[in-house]
Structures are given as C-alpha cells and as structure tokens.
C-alpha cells in the first residue's frame, strides 16, 4: 500500500459503495480490493452489532434518487416507463393488427427482451446502491428475478400492439367496410358491452364496445359490418353496422 492510499477504515458503507463504483480498477487494483474487503467487513460488523442489540431489524436503505442512479439504471427505468405507457392507447383504440406485421416480429421481440434482460443484470452489477436497495426487501428480491420476464411481456406488447397502432396513425390509410364474424365477449372494466371480432386471414383478433341494447339485439355469434380505416399495419375500428 502506498503512503497516499486512503484510509478506508474511516469510510462509511455508503462511501465505500461509491468508491467501488467510481474507482479506476486498472489504475488502482490494490485500492479497489482494499475498499471491497473493507465494505464486506463493515457490513459484517453491522450485522453482528444488530444481532447483539436484540436482533433489531434495520430499516431498508432509501431508494436512490434519480440523480444518484447510474446512467444505465436511468436508461432501463426510462425504457420500461415508455413501453408501459405506450400500451395505454391500445386499451382505448380498437385496433386489429395486420398479420403481415406480427408474422415478422417474433425475432425482434426476443432480441429486444434479451438485450434488456442482459442490461438489467449489468445494471445490478454496476449500480451497487440500487442493488442494495432491491436486496433489502422481498419485493426487491422478487424484482431482481422477475424483471426479465416483465421486459419480455412489455417488449411483446410494444412491438406487436403499440408500435403498429402508432405507425397506422401517422401513415396513409383508407376508409373500409368489412363483413366480419363476431362473438359476444365477457364484460371488462373499460368495456362492459364487448364484442370480440374474430381474426381474419389478414387481421389479428380485435374487439369493440357497444351499448347494452345493441348487444342484446345481437345473437351470441354471427356477422356484422365493421367500419374503420385500413393501412398496411392494420385496421382501426371506428364503429359497426348492425345486420338487418
């Protein structure tokens, strides 16, 4: 150890965690190992002290502020928020995605989910403060394991639902009328009088909401004329015409 080496025994646990994040390991390998060993020692001493004081449970560390998080952590949090919020419009717009789109997206979904999962575990390795915050509670420990599956779910919803709807909105489209098969669907919170539109050779499954009187006037299944706008990415349903 050189004379200018910091006295890590005087550092707090939080300060040692910062040292391990920002220290240049190639330039100061001995200091890095010393700080890492001291952090493990202080954590062990804290646990022993807690047990000696009657097995008191320390409160979990506070969640790191946005400004305290590493860039990789903020990027992951931002990407999850973008994908989550992008799903909301699909609940209110009745959109049938074109099968020509969904037929070519499975590989993209898996690649995106894989990249996000790898980045997630890299984030946990680099951002020690965030990792300690997650490890302190069972919810955080569950998030460590399940987050990749959450990224897979949101990747699928973003690629196969949100993205084609957004592209449909901004690109050229034409008004169409199609006679389609339907079935009465179960009630949902955002659509109590629901009709399920059966998928066609060109379009995926869809649904639309109607009034209780219109729904009651229809048989359990049959055909209706669906009105909407069509593009290469799918069909946005504007309404329907009851059979005579």
TrEMBL record:
The keyword Transmembrane applies. Keywords: Membrane, Transmembrane, Transmembrane helix. The chain crosses the membrane at residues 71-93, 105-124, 136-159. This is Uncharacterized protein. It comes from Pseudidiomarina planktonica.
